[in-house]
Amino acid sequence: MKKLSLILLSLSLLNATSLKTMLESIENNEQLKAKNYETLSKEESAKSVKYKYYPSATLQVGFVSFDYDRYIINPNNLTNVSLAIDALIYDGKRNSNINLAKKNHELSQIELEKAKNELEFNLASLYLALIHI
Fold it and tell me: Of 17, 5, 8, whose CA–CA distance to 127 is shortest?
């Protein structure tokens, strides 16, 4: 009886380690990878909404030389510099847009965790059902 209980204990430990290994391998699931990319996309989208309301500056510089054009009577060099500053004066929906983007990102994280938990639960249920057969 003692040997039988030792054998059963060792088998259950082996099964537990293989279940643990299978649960760790869920991270390589394609469905979870797709959800993870979706979460990263929502995070970048939230950042872009936030940065959309920051002022921006654009500097453009150009130089054209007519020294080697022999058909021009009086060759000159042309330099062009322009600076544009864009700033949003007022947007009544600014805070709501930023909060909506943050909430979409949080929802995506929750959906990722839910999908991972469902896969782990299904794997554990199937594993335990196969052991008891």
Answer: 17
The answer to whether 77 and 64 are in contact (CB under 8 A) is yes
- Distances 129 to 3, 13, 23 between C-alpha atoms, Å: 25, 17, 16
Tell me which long-range contacts 11-18 makes (C-beta under 8 A, separation of at least 24): 15/127, 15/131
pTM exceeds 0.90, yes or no: no
- Closest CA relative to residue 80, chosen from 57, 66, 63: 63
Q: Please count the other Cβ atoms lying within 10 Å of the Cβ belonging to residue 101.
A: 19
- For the stretch 53-77, pLDDT in tens is 888 888 888 887 766 666 666 657 7
> For every residue of the chain, which 3-state class applies, written as one string?
CHHHHHHHHHHHHHHHHHHHHHHHHHHHCHHHHHHHHHHHHHHHHHHHHHHHCCCEEEEEEEEEECCCCCCCCCCCEEEEEEEEEECCCCCCCHHHHHHHHHHHHHHHHHHHHHHHHHHHHHHHHHHHHHHCC
